[in-house]
Amino acid sequence: MKEDISVLVCDDSALMRNLISRIIENTQGLSVCAKAMNGQIALERIEDSKPDVIVLDIEMPVMNGIEFLKERKKRHIDVPVIILSSIATEGATVTMEALELGASDFLTKPNGSVTADLSSVADRLVELLSSYGFSYAALHGKDVYEPDFFVRQIKLREAERFVLEQKKEKIEALHEQNVDSITDKLVPIQKKFEWNPPEKKEPSVIVPVRNPGKIEIIAIGISTGGPNALREVFKFIDPHLKQPIVVVQHMPAGFTKEFAMSLDKICPLKVQEAVDGQQIEGGNIYIAPGNYHMTVERKLSGSCIHLSQEPQRNGHRPSADALFESIANGFKNNALGVIMTGMGRDGASQLAAMRTQGAWTIGQDEKSSIVYGMPKVAYELGAVQEQISLDKMADEISSLAREHL
Hints:
Layout: E1 5-10, H1 14-25, E2 30-36, H2 39-49, E3 53-57, H3 65-74, E4 81-85, H4 89-100, E5 105-108, H5 118-139, H6 147-165, H7 168-172, H8 179-186, E6 217-222, H9 226-235, E7 245-249, H10 256-266, E8 270-273, E9 284-287, E10 293-297, E11 304-308, H11 320-331, E12 335-339, H12 348-356, E13 360-364, H13 374-380, E14 386-388, H14 390-403
Parallel strand pairs: 1-2, 1-3, 3-4, 4-5, 6-7, 6-12, 7-9, 8-9, 12-13, 13-14
Antiparallel strand pairs: 10-11
Helix pairs in contact: 1-8, 2-3, 5-6, 9-14, 11-12, 12-13
């Protein structure tokens, strides 16, 4: 029988602890093993509750989230931590500090009042907890459901949300009731359903229309597990790399500028948030801003970045598909496409388009991916020439870029 992924919820707000806990408990395969109102209590409860993942607030009395992460590091506690973050500028700065201290990822915090945004927060929370919790639990010998199991639940939630949208007036009337009633209505989920692990598919074969050429640009698409994976890659990237790198990391608006700045501290190349109309330069890394698609236009006078708020693709903006599509159309076989850890399929089909045009392509392997979703779909489509582990990704990108300059 499968065990639950156990979650410790740490927040000084009783409302928030209850809200987050109800989302967890209403998702089959997840359960709350402990709650804490500050970091000190959380540290005391880790040994007895043995969580597989921790949800951590930043601003708390006695011991805040940053102090908790510092103490966690001193005690060599390796349980993954998901930060609850404010969208404010100062919140983004502290969130990046938390990632530098070893937090795995972050979730934008509901504002306390229950709004229509709660359901999307629930989906993102389930995605993060299932992804990081599965990796940790499996590493420690627990038999828990794989992330695909939780993807199915998220899809069920989306279907139920559509039904709830038809009853919008009734839902709005619940705002005067207590939080338990509201979360029951806004975060419904079927606790039991039939589910079978997806079968592994043999990859399709893509025959490129031309041979791979020189690499003039490197494009990376990445999602869940991305913040720390990119830190690993860019920390060890070749400091003499000549090509520009453009990156789509699924991240909310308000965080990508701080994220780029945090990467710039550890990367030998210049890392910056992309700006609309900006001309790209070799040896620079450009991060797509949150809530904007990023595409690249190739010109004789020099390639430039375009940002737009066109509709989401694969449920995302920025979308790796939007970026890869522009690279396939503009650079054809003079590019390197990289797809890394992430839930879903964003980037997979257009990485296949890049491969069809003759571009070089690589994907992160299953073992080193927090979620083998995006790279898995790309591999099955035949879009990936070679699968690479995270610890070798920087060397592989650097080597290909040097060899095909």
